[in-house]
């Protein structure tokens, strides 16, 4: 990658409030191609809000969001600020595929249909082109034999792996994960952690919100600790987990990492 390639996603000084509640108070995050950035922090610190603002599911009031160097264009100001260009929103959103804690698979569709749905309906791709890709992705995440079953017939770990295959089927430039393992029992969690580690090893660009400090330590190039809507500390995982500088991060880690 050349030195002047812009980050896949860059967020500069982002501010977001819900009414009078300031949730993000000037947050900057940069994810270069092939890098994994993890967001950690207590409940309510603004991690999910940041991801939702990044892929334009939520409006923000101040600051910039750049996708591969292209700034989001806005109309209006402050509480009335909204993205100005719907085509740009669709382009960015389809390139930043999101994986949620609760999988969010369509209950009435088979797993294969779930994975094929967005490329066919949003991107307008030919189903005959999408289907082999979807099957290969389900194979890749270890559930190639589940193409024709419905989500309710699968374990949580299998459903989350299907959700990851669905995100990958959009061929996004980056994947955004919001607590992908939090709804899972420990042994099912490991199936999903393995898939995420494989994706990191392949050089996928990912931003991962997680409570799993071991996952963050293992896969991240950069870790960001959010506290009450601000970045309290950030750096390589060795530094954040090995030698946390701020008292708040030290407290957070001592409360979350098992002894
Ligand atoms: N739609 C909303 N309307 C009003 N307030 C909201 C909304 N979504 C989130 N908030 C508030 O914004 C703050 C940050 O929430 P957010 O979901 O981003 O936290 P989080 O860091 O992801 O927490 P958790 O670890 O529990 O998932 C919280 O105080 C929350 O109550
Ligand atoms: Mg959250």
From TrEMBL:
Keywords: ATP-binding, Cell membrane, Membrane, Nucleotide-binding, Transport. It is found in: Cell membrane. CDD domains: ABC_HisP_GlnQ. GO terms for cellular component: plasma membrane. It comes from the Bacteria. One of its GO terms (molecular function) is ATP binding. It is a peripheral membrane protein. InterPro entries: AAA+_ATPase, ABC_ATPase_HisP-typ, ABC_transporter-like_ATP-bd, ABC_transporter-like_CS, MetN_ABC_transporter-like, P-loop_NTPase. Pfam families: ABC_tran. Residues 9-253 form the ABC transporter domain. Belongs to the ABC transporter superfamily. This is Amino acid ABC transporter ATP-binding protein, PAAT family. It comes from Litoreibacter albidus.
């Amino acid at each position: 990658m050349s030195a002047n390639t812009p980050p896949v996603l860059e967020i500069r000084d982002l501010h977001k409030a819900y009414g009078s509640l300031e949730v993000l108070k000037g947050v900057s995050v940069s994810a270069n191609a092939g890098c994994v950035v993890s967001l950690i922090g207590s409940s309510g610190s603004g991690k999910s809000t940041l991801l939702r603002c990044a892929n334009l599911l939520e409006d923000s009031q101040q600051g910039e969001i750049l996708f591969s160097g292209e700034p989001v264009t806005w109309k209006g100001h402050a509480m009335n600020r909204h993205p100005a260009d719907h085509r740009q929103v669709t382009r960015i959103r389809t390139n930043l595929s999101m994986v949620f804690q609760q999988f969010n698979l369509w209950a009435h569709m088979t797993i294969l249909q779930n994975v094929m749905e967005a490329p066919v309906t949003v991107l307008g791709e030919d189903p005959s082109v999408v289907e082999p890709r979807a099957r290969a992705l389900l194979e890749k995440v270890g559930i190639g034999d589940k193409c024709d079953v419905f989500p309710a017939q699968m374990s949580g770990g299998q459903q989350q792996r299907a959700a990851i295959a669905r995100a990958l089927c959009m061929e996004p430039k980056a994947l955004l994960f919001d607590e992908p393992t939090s709804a899972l029992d420990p042994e099912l969690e490991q199936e999903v952690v393995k898939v995420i580690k494989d994706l990191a090893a392949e050089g996928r660009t990912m931003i991962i919100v997680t409570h799993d400090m071991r996952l963050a330590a293992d896969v991240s190039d950069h870790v960001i600790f959010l506290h009450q809507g601000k970045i309290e500390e950030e750096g390589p995982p060795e530094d954040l987990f090995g030698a946390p500088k701020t008292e708040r991060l030290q407290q957070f880690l001592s409360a979350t990492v098992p002894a």
